[in-house]
Amino acid sequence: LVIPSPKKGDDPLQKESFATRLRAVREARHYTLQEMADLLGTSKQVICRYENGQRTPKITVAADYAHRLQVDLLYLLGESDTLQPPQTGQPDQEILQLFSQLPPEKQ
């Protein structure tokens, strides 16, 4: 699975990074919008809005998507080029630090 890396930004939930990474994962796995929506428990319209940068999920939703897609949350957020999630199963300190830096309305 080869997924191109978008440029990194300062915002942990930067719309471009999340949108680009989510679409890249979907396309690399050959999922339709409907298949992706079914896997993530949402509608294809929501996935389309995420991929087009019209909408950004809360960090908890992004974390759930990363888990369901079996990718590293930091990868989805554009903060890491490591596609695979950590093997520990324990909360990643880096993720917790990013979460604590978000304004309350994005947590």
Main traits of this protein?
globular, mainly alpha, 50% helix, 107 residues
Q: What would you call the structural class?
A: mainly alpha
The amount of beta strand, in percent, is: under 5%
Shape: globular
- What is the string of SSEs from the N terminus onward? HHHHHH
Largest pleated sheet: none
Give the % helix.
40-55%
Radius of gyration: 13 Å
Question: Residue ranges: pLDDT <50 for 5 or more in a row?
Answer: 5-12
Number of helices: 6
Kindly state the mean pLDDT as a whole number?
80
Secondary-structure map with pairings?
Elements: H1 15-28, H2 33-40, H3 44-51, H4 59-69, H5 73-76, H6 93-101
Outline the structure in words.
The chain is an all-alpha fold. The chain has helices spanning 15-28, 33-40, 44-51, 59-69, 73-76, 93-101. Helix 2 (33-40) packs across helix 3 (44-51). Helices cover 50% and strands 0% of the residues.
Short structural description:
The chain has 107 residues and is an all-alpha fold. The chain has helices at 15-28, 33-40, 44-51, 59-69, 73-76, 93-101. The termini are far apart.
